[in-house]
Amino acid sequence: MSKTISATTRKRLDVQGMCDVDDATMASLTPWHRMSFTLCGLIAGVGTVLASPTILFALVPIAVLGILFPVHPFDLIYNIFIRPLRKTGPLPKRGAPVRFACAMGGTVLIIAGLCFQNGYNLVGYILGGMMLFMSSLVTFADVCVASYIYQGLFGRKKATA
Questions:
Q1: How far, in Å, are 3, 63, 71, 73 from residue 160 at the CA level?
Q2: Rounded to 10 degrees, what is the CA torsion of 31, 131, 69, 10?
Q3: Could you tell me if 103 and 39 are in contact, meaning their C-beta atoms sit under 8 angstroms apart?
Q4: pLDDT digits over 24-69, tens only?
Q5: Where are the domains of the chain?
Q6: What is the pTM of this model?
Q7: Element (H, E) at 109
Q8: Are 63 and 105 in contact (CB under 8 A)?
Q9: pLDDT, tens only, 61-90
Q10: Do residues 23 and 5 lie in contact, with contact meaning Cβ atoms separated by under 8 Å?
Q11: Distance in angstroms (rounded) separating the CA atoms of residues 131 and 16
C-alpha cells in the first residue's frame, strides 16, 4: 500500500478533523477509518429496506457513543481485532466534525425509525436512503457532508477534540 495520499484526500480528511494525523499514517489507515461509516450505512440501509424501526433505533446508541467519545464504537473492531494482525497503530481519534456527523446521523435515524413506526414509509425510505448515500460518500470518496456542514457552522479550525 502506498504511504502517501492525494492532496484531495488530505483536504477531505482535514475537514473531518484529521488535521493532526500525518499522511503516512492516514495512507495506511484510511480504509479502516472508513469502516465505521460503512458499517453504519450498511446497517441503516438494511433497516431502511426492511422498513424496520427496530434496526434503525438499534443504531442510535452507537451514534450517541460516537458523539460522546473520540473513538467510535465501530473503530474498536479495528483497534481490538484487526490492528494486532496488521501490526499498526490505532485509528486516530475522531474529531468534532465527525462527532457532529454522528449527531446528525443519529437524529436522522430516530426520525426515519419514527416514520416507519407511524406509517410514513415514504419519508422513512427517503431519510434512510439519505443515510446510505451519505455514508457511501465517505466510504468511497472520503467526503463527509456533515463535516462540511460543521466546518461551515463553526469554521475551519483544528477540530480534533
A1: 22, 18, 11, 17
A2: 40
A3: no
A4: 888 888 889 999 999 999 999 999 999 999 999 999 999 999 999 9
A5: 7-154
A6: 0.90
A7: helix 96-117
A8: yes
A9: 999 999 999 999 999 999 999 999 988 889
A10: yes
A11: 17
